[in-house]
Amino acid sequence: MLNRCDVELQTGLLQISVHNARYPLEKLLTFGARQNPKRRYLFISKVLGKYVPCLPSDMRETYQTLAQAVKQSLLLHSNTWVLGVAETATGLGAGVAQELKRSGLQNVIYSHTTRCDLDRDIGFSITEAHSHAPSHLIYSLDSTLAEQQVESVVIVDDEISTGKTLEQLSQKLQQNLPQLKTIIWVSLVNWLSVEQREAYRQAYPQLSFTFISLLDGSYRFYADEQFPLQLPDKTASGISRANSRDDIGRTGYLASPEPEVLFYTPQGTRLDISQLNPTEKYTVIGTGEFTFQPFLFAEDLQAQGVDVVFQSTGRSPVLEGAGITSKQSFFDEAQRGVYYLYNLQKNRQAIILYETHEQYFSCPFRLKLNAITAILT
User: Fold this and answer.
1) ∠342-259-49 over CA atoms, to 5°?
2) Based on the structure, what is the number of domains in the chain?
3) CB–CB of 52/44 below 8 Å?
4) What is the average pLDDT value for the chain, to the nearest integer?
């Protein structure tokens, strides 16, 4: 198992040290160069289903591992709010919430931060300083979810580097949740030092404050300042005005141990294994923040013996090279910005799944890939 590695990127040198790991570094991560002068490097997860195609079963394993560790820090009968951080961890957070519900927790709410405009009340917002799209909206939970009774918050992100984003979320949640007793920061990888973690704990002396991850380590990045870097034209950096759903995580829902997910083609036919060739290889593709329901669809196909991998389009511009072997981009009319798909495997039939009809009609990528398409009902 690798404990140290040096990664040469176009934008500089990334040096990694592993301190503790439930999963080996080489199973969890590869690396890339962001096309973003605010932060020139990227930790690319191999188990997240974003930049790298993943087996749904590998993704499910991480949900189960993280949830099992989280449950040990929660009261069995506590009212728990799992909050995923957009864009990358919307599916990861939903998976952890589902596994917590499966494990026997009674009241598990799931929601995620978003960069989508809804006609709903905003609870608060935060700014992710290093991001190409810094604004995060956190909508008030649906009135049936008893937000004021929440005792435990589990904040889920794919990686924690400085902790500043999660600290903002924690501060706002503490201000808004009078019954809050526990905060848990959950991630695939965590780069915070022992001293940084202790400082965060001391900032919340009245709360139980815990860190859970699959890998802990540290890193240093030596930037090549001679490498020219700026955000690409038409980067999707603002709040999206696209017609987006409010029932799949942005305003919260009660987690279910076995959620039912149905996708229908634009022609009105339900998409399932009966509409596919079970001997063909497929890539199921989620779109932007909309990843968990497409993942569940891919997981169901795999359970029925289909050769399938899962990944998602996203806003983040990354240079080809290192862990990014291929890159495709398209301008999304609904989102009013450029979106990307990385490392798409050849010789697989693409299935692109959308959350709304408007996003389906406005996305040219389905035509470029000659994809099978369907929309969540």
Assistant:
1) 15
2) 1
3) yes
4) 94
* Cα–Cα dist 170/208, whole Å: 12
In a domain, 217, yes or no: no
**Residue 14 half-sphere exposure, CB side, CA atoms within 13 Å?**
22
Closest CA to 50 of 94, 87, 97, 95: 87
Cα separation, 295 vs 159, whole angstroms: 20
Return the bridge partners of 42, or none: 32
Report yes or no on 225 lying in a domain. no
Per-residue pLDDT tens over the stretch 312-344 = 999 999 999 999 999 999 998 888 899 999 999
151 contact partners, CB below 8 Å, separation of at least 6:
75, 78, 79, 80, 179, 180, 181, 182
The domain in which residue 330 lies consists of 259-376
pLDDT digits (tens, 9 = 90+) for 218-247: 999 999 989 998 888 888 888 999 999 999
The answer to whether residue 287 sits within a structural domain is yes
